[in-house]
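ARCHIVE CARD
CATEGORY: sequence design from structure
SOURCE FIELD: tokenized fold
FIELD CONTENT:
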């Protein structure tokens, strides 16, 4: 809303009444910060917490009896939890690019983790894909910054190095972000060139939370966009000793698959608690939206994604199903849940809608605003898509996926086969119905192919250097 434009058409006493009304509204929703004559006084703050490799069940509010996450549960109790939340890709860099642009990894042609995994002798040759966040796109932070927002990225970047850093894409501050996919160490000295070391033994997740709180304190009187992409819970599995010991002592059903991983999840929860406490103590809760999700599914070596199949890097549901929680003051109803499928690209679309900033004119956006869903309505969309034209170290081969309603079809490029699953009856994808439901499989494949064309997706091609004896060897 352009309050300045509205005032220019209101004469005399009408102007005074409008200013008074805006002042009252500012006090009501923001604790009276700033001047009502300043349009930024009414803009909501936004915090996006993006966890690395967090599995869909690795929270108490997601049904886990192993992981202790009271602070993230506290966020869920204040907002809406999406039980069918998805990442834009089965690996990290593409999902990060999707969150910052609103475009699918297929459209961006940024379809693998950077720098990726080469299989020079495999059956297929992967396309020449984009290995940094494209500079010709207007990102979410660029759009918000132009609208008067302070912007900061605190944590993992992994979308390029020099020339494609957070500062090159709209962030005024970059703390701990580099081109690397994981930290050399979770304990100080960290070995991260964009983060000064703390006291010996300081824990990285604690430090990222402390830096985030400092940013909130410094910008409490100005609208801000804080992007907090934690390095945790990505490998290396390194946890605080006392928390690790507590999980290692558990027995029976409460025992985690990997005590170190469970302790790292608890550190993420502690960090969320610090953010929530700071937002409340600074008096900005009623004008600060918080979004919490993960960049891909959980790593099967350290967590249990069942009943969903497989995990990070795979073609199956647990590779992309993630926690997805959204709190927007004055919009979300406390403690609500939705089973509507939502995806990473919906996050920037929602932020640009509910802040009133709007999307970049002429730039495609693949996500949908969830504003109507947050208010208790529906979403005019039945279909989601994924595209991964790569080989993954975990064994996955190039594939594309469509989810349409209850159905999920996976197309594999090596042999051209399709697998079809009924997620309502078979969430673990144990029974391939492509043979018994040929009409459904054919229709979903038609929709998937049409979407790939519309997104100008790159697909793998036959590899003239294929050598079956060496096909599984990475470069």
């Amino acid at each position: 809303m352009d309050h300045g434009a509205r005032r220019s058409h209101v004469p005399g006493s009408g102007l005074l009444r409008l200013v008074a009304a805006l002042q009252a509204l500012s006090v009501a929703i923001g604790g009276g910060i700033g001047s009502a004559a300043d349009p930024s006084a009414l803009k909501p703050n936004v915090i996006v917490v993006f966890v690395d490799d967090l599995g869909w069940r690795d929270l108490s509010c997601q049904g886990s009896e192993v992981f202790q996450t009271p602070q993230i549960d506290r966020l869920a109790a204040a907002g809406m939890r999406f039980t069918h939340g998805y990442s834009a890709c089965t690996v990290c860099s593409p999902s990060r690019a999707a969150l910052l642009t609103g475009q699918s990894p297929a459209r961006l042609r940024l379809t693998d983790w950077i720098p990726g995994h080469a299989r020079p002798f495999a059956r297929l040759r992967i396309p020449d894909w984009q290995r940094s966040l494209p500079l010709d796109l207007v990102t979410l932070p660029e759009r918000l910054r132009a609208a008067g927002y302070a912007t900061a990225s605190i944590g993992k970047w992994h979308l390029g190095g020099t020339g494609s850093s957070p500062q090159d894409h709209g962030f005024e501050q970059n703390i701990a972000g580099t081109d690397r996919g994981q930290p050399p160490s979770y304990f100080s000295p960290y070995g991260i060139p964009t983060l000064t070391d703390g006291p010996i033994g300081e824990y990285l997740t604690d430090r990222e939370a402390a830096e985030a709180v400092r940013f909130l304190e410094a910008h409490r009187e100005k609208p801000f966009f804080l992007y907090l992409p934690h390095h945790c819970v990505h490998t290396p599995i390194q946890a605080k000793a006392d928390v690790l010991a507590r999980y290692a002592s558990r027995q029976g059903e409460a025992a985690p698959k990997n005590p170190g991983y469970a302790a790292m999840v608890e550190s993420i929860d502690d960090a969320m608690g610090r953010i929530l406490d700071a937002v409340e103590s600074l008096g900005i809760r009623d004008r600060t939206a918080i979004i919490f999700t993960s960049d891909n599914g959980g790593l099967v070596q350290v967590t249990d994604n069942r009943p969903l199949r497989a995990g990070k890097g795979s073609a199956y549901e647990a590779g992309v199903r993630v926690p997805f929680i959204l709190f927007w003051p004055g919009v979300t109803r406390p403690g609500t849940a939705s089973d509507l499928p939502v995806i990473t690209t919906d996050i920037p679309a929602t932020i640009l809608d509910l802040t009133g900033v709007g999307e970049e004119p002429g730039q495609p956006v693949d996500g949908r605003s969830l504003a109507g869903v947050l208010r208790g309505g529906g979403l005019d969309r039945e279909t989601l898509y994924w595209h991964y034209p790569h080989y993954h170290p975990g064994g996955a081969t190039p594939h594309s996926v469509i989810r349409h309603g209850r159905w999920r079809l996976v197309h594999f490029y090596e042999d051209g086969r399709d697998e079809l699953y009924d997620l309502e009856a078979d969430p673990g994808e144990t029974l391939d119905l492509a043979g018994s439901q040929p009409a459904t499989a054919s229709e979903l494949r038609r929709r998937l192919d049409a979407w790939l064309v519309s997104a100008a997706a790159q697909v793998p091609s036959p590899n003239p250097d294929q050598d079956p004896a060496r096909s599984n060897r990475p470069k």
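CARD ANNOTATION: The chain has a mean pLDDT of 91. Residues 259-281 form the longest helix (23 residues).
SHELF: design records, drawer C
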